[in-house]
Design goal:
Elements: H1 2-9, H2 14-26, H3 34-42, H4 50-59, H5 71-78, H6 87-96, H7 98-114, H8 116-124, H9 137-159, H10 171-187, H11 193-208, E1 215-219, H12 226-240, E2 247-252, H13 255-269, E3 274-277, E4 283-284, H14 292-296, E5 310-311, E6 326-330, H15 331-339, H16 343-346, E7 355-360, H17 370-383, E8 387-392, E9 415-416, H18 421-427, E10 431-441, H19 443-451, E11 455-459, H20 463-479, E12 487-490, H21 496-512, E13 516-520, E14 534-538, H22 542-549, H23 557-561, E15 568-575, H24 584-601, H25 611-623, H26 632-639, H27 643-649, E16 658-661, H28 666-678, H29 683-689, E17 693-696, H30 698-703, E18 708-714, E19 717-722, E20 725-726, E21 730-731
Parallel strand pairs: 1-8, 1-9, 2-6, 2-7, 3-6, 7-8, 10-15, 11-13, 11-14, 12-13, 14-15, 16-19
Antiparallel strand pairs: 4-5, 16-17, 18-19, 20-21
Helix pairs in contact: 1-2, 1-9, 2-5, 2-9, 4-5, 4-7, 5-9, 7-8, 10-12, 11-12, 19-20, 24-25
Length: 742
């Protein structure tokens, strides 16, 4: 089975297939030992078994020693329960331990004496070559990950009595279903520039699908139809080259839009055709048998089963290995699986080979990880026939300028799918941006300005600002005897289920033309399908401002009524309390402010179609960084084959938040009560509660302690629930009587 999976990952590489087969044959060789057999019969002890097969792959036998040995196979076998270790330290120390080597040699002699077939297999090891000639250290790293992935998936499938599904993508048939659906949507859309340009975007995607390149950019302004057009590109490409591509993976950065897009795809292709893997999190659990440092490194001192240390939720078994033709997942899940050292994560990686990966809102990739991210995507495109589509309204500067030498790609690496992106931006311009950043504004003035118009969206940078402005807005609305039901708050103090309900109410009011005033953090600005005539945006990074502009006149109806003159309005304002998220976000906002002020001094204004200003912004943001700021240290860890340390250091988002379950509706209340009674987080409870979670940073967690209750402790990890939850603001830090949404 391991050989079969390797052949599917790289069909013409018999060498990889042979190494995968060897790993599959010898990975459990240590179970032949007397100590392991005794454990099976008595249930006592937990002897190591992975190290013996690793020793055999590395050193061979006394009669047929291997030099330098099959190190890739040895690493895969040694880590098939505990995870890939750092080669220069933990793996090396273990492989040099004479105790394990002596045990392995003794075991080989016994096994060879018992079985002539085993003897022949061991003798054949000397004929194998490790990895592939001329591999760079980075290529070697990815080769080990792929080999390990094939072994882990085969081992887990075989243990469960399952086989690999590898359902056909049926790209040609699914493409036709998609095109039929797009035609229906177009028939029901009003005539105008937006409809015309969406047709052009689709035509460009279908035209570019035959390109010989592997790395693509798809630069489409918000509302231009890139969600469906990018899928059409992928399916058309897979239909043209069925021998190359076997699945499409859609990678989306935010939970606030992933369920929306997954619902769109499921409505077209059916729920059974689509694998969603995004809800819930993989949670690292400390165990009593590990020290804190060992648990943090994901490489425990012995061979204890990984399942004892980690719990993972998933509705379908395919989430374990992404064995499905269409996969929708988060950027965190996708990239942390690739850079992990844990079996449950790396198990999926071989199924990324020969896939077309659509990276939506690609401008959100963390700058501090850009070097290793670009590095591994380029290798996957060159060595594993994985194509990447970088889809966004604001294409970041992932290619360096010709005179620069940094960790970004050289010019010309990406192939743009849209034939004339400049004309497309101008044609889809539906808003004017007004920059009011010289005079700071307070919340009372901003709230009054919101209420001047029937429908208005304000986006601020931090959650405290959202709650303060919302309360100010609600107070003024009540003073004027306005309907409080027209005032909404959105932030990550609200759990995902709560936010989705509120968004549904907002869309209904917008569609009906009713008053609707919304205060939100930036969670609403990327991909969330809402359409306001006016958006007020606190000063922020330029790409965030352009994304926010996509919530104004999204469907282009106001612009069409003005005969093509932009009908939507975006105002960028400076709050009196100009509080920003730290680090990259704050620096990017500073660059934006400097560019906007210079443009104003020059008698111009930065707009959504200001290609020069947006390009200048991204070049300053990336090009002004040192290699260290772009992730050079992580690249070095990869090249040193320090798998465990890299896994610990690589974080798409900060792990400093603490998850709290919140009682936002009856389903959550019942599940929390069951959790209290059970004292443990069963898989069924975790699945129910995964959409009822609010993450708190340490300072917020301490502030909220008065309304939190610890209901269970699992292997040292505390499980907390909220006892106060507000139907407008979400998790409420003030210990007031509990308010439920019913």
């Amino acid at each position: 089975m391991s050989r079969e999976l390797a052949t599917l990952a790289r069909p013409n590489d018999d060498h990889l297939a042979q190494l995968a087969a060897i790993a599959g044959v010898f990975h459990d060789f240590g179970k032949y030992s007397d100590s392991f057999q005794k454990m099976l019969s008595t249930g006592q002890g937990h002897p190591q078994h992975a190290i013996h097969g690793a020793m055999l792959a590395k050193y061979g036998t006394m009669d047929a020693p291997l030099k330098p040995g099959l190190q890739t196979v040895a690493a895969a076998i040694a880590g098939h329960h505990a995870g890939l270790a750092d080669w220069t330290t933990r793996f090396k120390e273990k492989m040099l331990d004479p105790k394990y080597r002596d045990q392995a040699c003794s075991l080989v002699e016994t096994a060879c004496a018992d079985s002539s077939k085993f003897n022949r297999m061991v003798s054949a090891l000397s004929k194998q070559q490790d990895a592939f000639p001329g591999a760079t250290r980075a290529q070697y790293d990815l080769f080990v990950r792929m080999l390990f992935s094939c072994l882990i998936d085969a081992d887990r499938l075989d243990s469960a009595g399952r086989s690999a599904l590898q359902d056909a993508l049926c790209a040609k048939e699914r493409l036709q279903v998609l095109l039929n659906r797009i035609a229906e949507l177009q028939d029901n859309s009003p005539e105008g520039k937006v409809k015309q340009m969406r047709s052009q975007v689709l035509a460009d995607c279908l035209h570019a699908s035959s390109s010989p390149q592997n790395l693509f950019s798809l630069s489409v302004p918000t509302g231009g139809g890139k969600t469906l057009a990018s899928m059409a590109f992928a399916l058309q490409r897979a239909a043209l080259y069925p021998e190359r591509f076997r699945r499409v993976i859609v990678v989306i950065p935010f939970l606030s839009i992933i369920e929306q897009n997954a619902q769109v795809y499921a409505g077209i292709f059916g729920h059974d055709a689509l694998l969603e893997h995004h809800s819930g999190c993989i949670q690292k659990l400390k165990t009593h048998s590990c020290t804190d440092s060992e648990a943090d490194y994901f490489f425990p001192a012995d061979d204890e089963e990984e399942e004892m240390k980690y719990q993972e939720t998933g509705v379908r078994l395919e989430t374990e290995n992404w064995d499905a033709p269409l996969v929708v997942t988060t950027s965190v899940r996708f990239f942390e699986s690739i850079f992990s050292n844990r079996p449950s994560d790396l198990r999926r990686v071989h199924n990324i080979a020969r896939s077309i990966v659509i990276l939506d809102e690609v401008q959100t990739l963390p700058r501090r990880l850009l070097g290793p991210l670009l590095d591994i995507m380029k290798e996957m495109s060159e060595d594993w026939d994985t194509n990447f589509v970088f889809a966004t309204a604001t294409q970041p500067a992932f290619e360096r300028q010709r005179h620069k030498k940094d960790l970004r790609w050289k010019p010309g690496t990406l192939t743009e799918i849209i034939r004339d992106p400049v004309s497309l931006r101008k044609a889809l311009k539906r808003v004017d941006i007004c920059w009011e950043i010289d005079t700071p504004v307070g919340w009372p003035d901003l709230a009054q300005r919101m209420l001047v118009v029937p429908q208005c969206l304000v986006i601020v940078n931090v959650r405290d600002h959202a709650s303060q402005l919302y309360e100010e807005l609600l107070c003024i609305a009540k003073e004027r005897n306005l309907n409080a039901e027209s005032v909404f708050h959105l932030s990550t103090r609200m759990c995902a289920a709560h936010r989705l309900r509120v968004l549904d109410r907002i869309r209904l009011r917008l569609k009906a033309g009713q008053p609707c005033h919304v205060v939100s953090t930036q969670l609403v600005e990327a991909g969330v399908d809402v359409d306001f005539p006016q958006v007020l945006r606190a000063l922020a990074p330029l790409d965030s401002i352009v994304q926010a502009a996509g919530r104004a006149d999204r469907e282009g109806k106001l612009t069409a009524a003005l005969n093509g003159k932009p009908g939507g309005k975006v105002v960028v304002f400076l709050p009196i309390e100009h509080k920003l998220p730290p680090h990259e976000y704050k620096q990017a906002a500073g660059i934006t402010c400097a560019i906007a002020k210079q443009e104003l001094l020059d008698g111009k204004s930065v707009q959504v179609d200001s290609a020069h200003a947006i390009g200048d912004y991204f070049e300053r943001y990336y090009g002004g960084c040192s290699d260290r700021e772009l992730g050079k240290e992580l690249l070095d860890l990869r090249r040193n084959l320090d798998f465990a340390t890299l896994a610990q250091e690589f974080e798409m988002i900060s792990n400093r938040t603490r998850d709290v379950f919140v009682p936002d509706d009856e389903e959550a209340q019942d599940a929390i009560e069951e959790l209290r009674l059970a004292g443990e987080l069963r898989p069924s409870l975790r699945r129910t509660l995964q959409r009822h979670i609010v993450g708190l940073i340490p300072s917020e967690f301490e502030k909220a302690k008065g309304v939190l209750e610890r209901v269970a402790t699992i292997a040292g990890d505390e499980i907390w629930v909220a006892t106060a939850y507000d139907e407008q603001l979400g998790l409420n830090f003030n210990p007031e009587p509990i308010k439920y949404i019913l």
